[in-house]
Amino acid sequence: MSRLRSILLINGLNLFSLCIVSLVGDCLCFGRPLTIYTIQNMYLRSLTDNLTHGLVSVFATSFLFGWTQYSLLIIAFLSGCFIDIDHFIEIRSLSLNSVLHNQRQDRPFLHNSLLLLIITLIVYIFEYFLYQNQYSYYSIIFFLGWSTHHLRDAQRRGLTLLPLGETSPINNYLLIICFVLITIKLIHMLKSLTLHNLYLIQTFPENIYFIERLQSIWFENCINIHFLLSSIDKQSLKNIIIRHSTCDYIILKNFLDQLDTVRYLDLASLQIIKLSNQTNEQLYLSSKLKTCSLNSTILKFYSFLPHISLRSIELIDINVDILSMILNQFQSLKIMCL
Questions:
Q1: Selected residue with higher pLDDT from 58 and 264
Q2: Secondary structure class of 206 (helix, strand, coil)
Q3: Helix, strand and coil percent figures for the chain, each rounded to 5
Q4: CB 3.0 to 4.6 Å from 245: which of 98, 222, 269, 338, for a disulfide?
C-alpha cells in the first residue's frame, strides 16, 4: 500500500505541476486567470509563452513515462515548442520582430489540429508495423506536445480543424488535458506491467495474483523475478524487457516456451541463477519474434534453428564462434548490434 500511495502521490504532483506551470505562464503572458504581473516586453512574452508550451509537454510526458528517460523529455519539450515555427515559415523570415508585427488573421498550418492528428495517426501506424509496438511511444509524445500546445492556445482562439472549421474558445483546457492524460495512463496500465527495484522471496499464487491480457512487461533491477513469471498470462504478451535482474533457468525456460505472440525480447542483462543438471534443456525463440537482445550466458542455452521472422538482434559479450553460427542460421536478419 505504501508503494501505491507513493505512485499516486508522484502522479498527482506531476499533474499539479503541469497545471501550475500552465497557469503561471497564462498569468505572465496574458494576465489570466489572475492579473498579478503581466510581461510587457512582447519579445520576452513570446519566449515565455513558448517555454510554457514546452514545459507543459514535459510534465505531460513525465506523467506517462516518468522522469528517468531524459531523451523522451527532451523530445517532449521540442514537440511542445516547435509548433510555433510555422509563424516563421508563413512569413518566410527568421526574425522574431517580423513575426510579431506581421501576424495573419488565420492560423498557420501547424496550428491545424486536424492536420496534426492525421500525421500522428500515420506515424503511429508506421511505428506499429515497423517496430511491432515497441517504439510507439514517440508518436504519443508527439501527440502530447502539439495537443497541449493547441489546447493552451484554444483558450483565446479555439481549435482549428480545417477544412471542417474552428471551435469556440476553450476556457477549461486544463481539465481536458488532465482527463486525456489519466485516460491514456489507465489504458497503458491495463496493458503493461512495469516493476523496478524488487526483491522477491516467494512465488506469487496464481489464483490471487494472476495477471491477464498483458501486452508488455518491463522488469528492471529485480531479484528472483522467476517468482513472478509463473503468475503472468502469456497469451497476449508482445514485448518483454527483463534487465539487470536474476532468474531461475528452468522457470525462465517454461515461461519462454509458452510465448507464442512475443515480438520484442530483451534479456541482454538478465543473470541466470540456480543452474543445475537440468540446464541441458534448450531455449527456443518464438516463431513471431522480430527483435531480441541477448547476452552470452543466455545464448549458450539457445537452440540456433533457422528463424524466419527475426529481423534485428543485439548481442552482448559475444564470442566469434557463436557469432558465425548466428550469421549462418538467421538468414532473415537485417540489423545486428554488437
A1: 58
A2: helix
A3: 55, 15, 35
A4: 222
**DSSP 3-state of 312:** strand
Amino acid at 325: M
What are the backbone dihedrals phi and psi of residue 241, each rounded to the nearest 5 degrees, phi first? -125, 115
C-beta separation of 304 from 285 below 8 A: no
3-class state of residue 18 by DSSP:
helix
Place of cell 505504501: 2
Report the half-sphere exposure of 234 (CA within 13 A, side-chain side).
15
* Number of residues that this document lists for the chain: 338
Q: What is the DSSP string of 236-247?
A: T--EEEEES-EE
Instruction: Locate 214 and state its grid cell.
Output: 498483458
pTM: predicted TM-score of the whole model, two decimal places: 0.65
Angle between helices 42-65 and 173-191 (to 10 degrees): 30
Cβ–Cβ < 8 Å for 307, 331: no
Number of neighbouring beta carbons within 10 Å of residue 142 = 21
Which residues have C-beta within 8 Å of that of residue 232, sequence separation ≥ 6? Answer: 193, 210, 211, 214, 217, 255
In single-letter form, the type of residue at position 5 comes to R
For the segment 279-303, what is each residue's pLDDT rounded down to a tens digit? 567 777 777 788 888 887 777 777 6
CA 19 to each of CA 15, 30, 245: distance values in angstroms, whole numbers, following the listed order: 6, 16, 37
> Cβ distance 270 to 242 under 8 Å?
yes
Taking only the tens place, the pLDDT of each residue in 105-124 is 788 999 999 999 999 999 98
